[in-house]
Amino acid sequence: MQHQLSSFIYETIPSLAREIYAVCLMLFKLTIPVLIIVKLLEELGAIPYISRVLEPVMQLVGLPDSMGLVWATTLLTSIYGGMLIFFQLAPQENLTVAQVTVISTLMLIAHSLPIELRIVQKAGVKIVFALLIRVIPALILGALLHHSYLWGDWLQQPVVLMWQPPVTDDSLLSWGLNQLQSFMMIIVVITVLMSLLRFLRWIHIERLMIWLLQPVLKLLGIGPQAASLTIVGVTLGLSFGGGLLIREAQSGRVSPKDCFSALCLLSLCHSMIEDTLLVMTLGADLSGVLWARLIFSLVFIAIMTRVLNRLSEPTQHRWLLNPAIRD
Q1: Which helix (H) or strand (E) holds 308?
Q2: Does the pTM of the predicted model rise above 0.85?
Q3: Which positions, given as ranges, span the membrane (predicted)?
């Protein structure tokens, strides 16, 4: 017991602290420039014009124009980066739970594209297809959720935001202080979520996920060599699963088709634990960000793998499959 306590104090806590520090540092390096640009655009009165450009896309999924800026930030940086913009813009919009669930679903499927598209490309998917399979399915699922919630009059109550920037004057000093408060809030969220994720790994929750998902992956046409790595990505994230798939694809132990199907599934449905918990802090509902996303991803990939099997090998290699890139 004493040894376990000593290990927890001197190994687990420092390791977790280093992990939290690394994530926060990377996040702030990415998002602080974006926040400054957004503030400059706001001061110049450009936000309404940018929102107008994104308006047709947001109308498809029943969201106000400003949420286009949240998603655009998420696409270029990360979910955390999108959250910072969300906290800045959402209090002015009177969003419903349904709308927050829709924007959260868009953020979950399509985010961190500069980094994650490179991972997928290195593991064996053409970059253009990798981009399309993140953005188009995200919009399709967003539209389906929007119309379903509207049709059933579900989740139409106003969302209760976990945190809102305080109402202050419009000076740059006040804005800077508000952003510092936002950063502190994000640090708290990251600390809680990463601690919870570490606990879930400690109790081996991923073993339950493997047991549940392995039969489903067989139905999707993903072979056993890629199945366990796919489940790692689904539970822990594209960087984990994608990184392992890159190694396996480069070694030749996983076939290009299996790798392609696995990567397409991970593109739509990864980090089911951490990212789902993360967007729930925005007020999103599990019906969309977990269950609908999981079912939609499985159905979409099942259809896609059957279409893939009907294509000739030259067509597959020309438009879809990319040889695993070695460093």
Answers
A1: helix 293-310
A2: no
A3: 20-41, 68-90, 96-115, 127-152, 172-196, 290-308
Contact 75, 66 (CB under 8 A): no
Query: Of the candidates 292, 317, 320, which has an alpha carbon nearest to the alpha carbon of residue 147?
Result: 292
- How large is the angle between the packed helices 256-268 and 127-152, nearest 10 degrees? 40
Q: Does 324 reside within a domain?
A: no
pLDDT digits (tens, 9 = 90+) for 259-271: 888 888 889 998 8
Each residue's pLDDT tens digit, 218-258:
777 777 667 766 776 777 677 655 666 666 667 677 777 78
What's the structural domain count of the chain? 1
Provide the percentage of residues in the chain whose pLDDT is more than 90: 24
Does a structural domain hold residue 327?
Answer: no
What SS3 string covers 231-290? HHHHHHCHHHHHHHHHHHHHHCCCCHHHHHHHHHHHHHCCCCCHHHHHHHCCCCCHHHHH
Range of the domain at 255: 2-158+172-319
